[in-house]
Amino acid sequence: MPVLAVQDLRKTYGDREVVAGVSFELKRGECFGLLGPNGAGKTTTLRLCLGLTDPDSGTITLVDSPVPQSAREARRRVGVVPQMDNLDPDFTAAENLLVYGRYFGMSDRETRSRIPDLLEFAGLSQRGDSKINTLSGGMKRRLTLVRALINDPDLIVMDEPTTGLDPQARHLIWDRLKRLLGQGKTIFLTTHFMDEAERLCDRLIIMDHGKVITQGPPRELVAQHIEPQVVEVYGDGLNEWLEQFAKSRAKRVEITGETAFCYGDGLESLLENLKSQTALRYLHRPANLEDVFLKLTGRELRD
Amino acid sequence: MIAAKHFRLPDISSRFFAVWRRNFLVWRKLAIPSMLGNLADPLVYMLGLGFGLGTLLPKVGGMQYMMFLAGGTVCYSTMNSATFEALYSAFSRMHAQKTWDAILNTPQNLDDVVMGEVLWAASKSLLSGTAILVVIWVLGLSHSPLTLFIIPIALLIGLCFASMGMMITALAPNYDFFMYYFSLWITPMTLLCGVFYPVSQLPHGLQVFAQFLPLTHAIDLVRPLLGNKIPTNVLGHVAVLLIYGVVSYYAALVLMRRRLSK
């Protein structure tokens, strides 16, 4: 039984179909990513899955309950980490957890017995009595994460878990998510960060314009859609260099603004030649999920 | 456009209590300053006008002006207390702090949250009304045992105005919007419904208009009790408050569903 199964989900706002026939399944214990540019329909998909809004058509089964019909029952076994921290600013860290437990119908005794472990998990053991506005961004994020664990959920849903965090804070969140996966939890996350998705996700889907445009394990997606190596080049004389030399040697060249992305297998001859091109600056790296993402969703800015 | 599904009947459950308790816990931390803040304004009006004007006036509505004013003050401070809570405080939790979003990610649903908020705003009203009543007792303005009935009436007034306020909150794009509600609804009631002088002093047209306003009926219930009299037409006054309350509660819920279940 999948933890979450979504079949041909559709939702229209006005005359815009924001979710246009989306299907996917989450297996127990996996980390599943939902990627897509702004406005792709990620947040709407999450809201539909949680039963916060009703679909126009399609079926959703969340932890064995049909949604939206039995969304409340389903949410008993789900923890949600929203995109924006909405911790209660009037309470301390520990009070936030206590009050959140009450929304799940948990007794205060039960919740209190869980609070020390949760604070410890968040690295906030010493900060239980701290007011929310005295916590750093990373601390708030970790507290929001453990708040979502108050009901010991089977599935944790996270909307952009590390947006706005510094690298230390992001790594700490990733480490905690890996520990949760190790405990057998299932994680469903949306993210803009391809490195995050590549690190954490067993499988992912990329959405655009309300549709799933590809899905699979990150490494397979890279292998399937993109040549293994990339050289990013920019500087004076780029166009001449591309015409005279690079285009015949790279498998594929993409140009965005001032930068050319040359994709290929070996690219040794390109790199050799670039050493003598003093006006050009370049970066050589293996292709990654971001290249797949940009190839499939385009490089134009989304607002 | 409001979708047909938003018109379904309220889902009433004891789950609202977790929401109510959340607000109570916040209030408890600031209980003393909050109470003083709530009491100061109506008491200054009551005592200032009561002593200042009261000595110039003969009996008003058959009683000392201070006692007359006390009846109005209980009602309008009850009204204000529920109104401020259901407008500004609930709007902060819904819109600015996103507290409701956090709650709605749990097994609570919107009906639970709206019910918790309305009952909380009514609870604050009850407290305000009761606090004024205690001052009335302490000052010796009334010792009638009938004044105890003012306590449940304050709750009813609170529910009525909390529901109306919640309806406005469901429509509000921002805090400024609430000024319209005050200018067009709350302030006219404060001045036309008999808080400061008997409605019978108004021109006929305005008297008729005042009969359509809920605060008039709240005051008609409370003021006689202070004078140790049983109000006339109790059922009629209670019905007006109930109708305003029930209709606007349902409207608030439908509008909130439209706003938040998109």
Helix content of chain B: over 70%
Number of strands of chain B: 0
Strand content of chain A: 25-35%
**Ends distance of chain B:** 12 Å
Q: Roughly how many Å is the radius of gyration of chain A?
A: 22 Å
Radius of gyration of chain B: 19 Å
Shape of chain B: globular
Tell me, briefly, the overall form of chain A: globular
Separate helix tally of chain B = 10
Oligomer: heterodimer
Element-by-element helix/strand order of chain A:
EEEHEEHEHHHEHEHEEHEHEEHEH
Give the structure's gist in a few sentences.
The complex is a heterodimer of chains A (303) and B (262). With 303 residues, chain A is α/β, with parallel strands linked by helices.
Topology:
The complex is a heterodimer of chains A (about 300) and B (about 260).
Chain A: E1 4-13, E2 16-26, E3 31-35, H1 42-50, E4 57-62, E5 65-67, H2 71-75, E6 78-81, H3 93-103, H4 108-121, H5 137-147, E7 155-159, H6 167-182, E8 186-191, H7 194-200, E9 203-208, E10 211-216, H8 218-225, E11 229-235, H9 238-249, E12 252-256, E13 259-264, H10 268-275, E14 280-286, H11 289-297
Parallel strand pairs in A: 3-8, 3-9, 6-7, 7-8
Antiparallel strand pairs in A: 1-2, 1-4, 4-5, 9-10, 11-13, 11-14, 12-13
Helix pairs in contact in A: 3-4, 8-11
Chain B: H1 16-29, H2 31-52, H3 65-96, H4 99-104, H5 110-138, H6 150-171, H7 178-192, H8 204-211, H9 214-226, H10 234-260
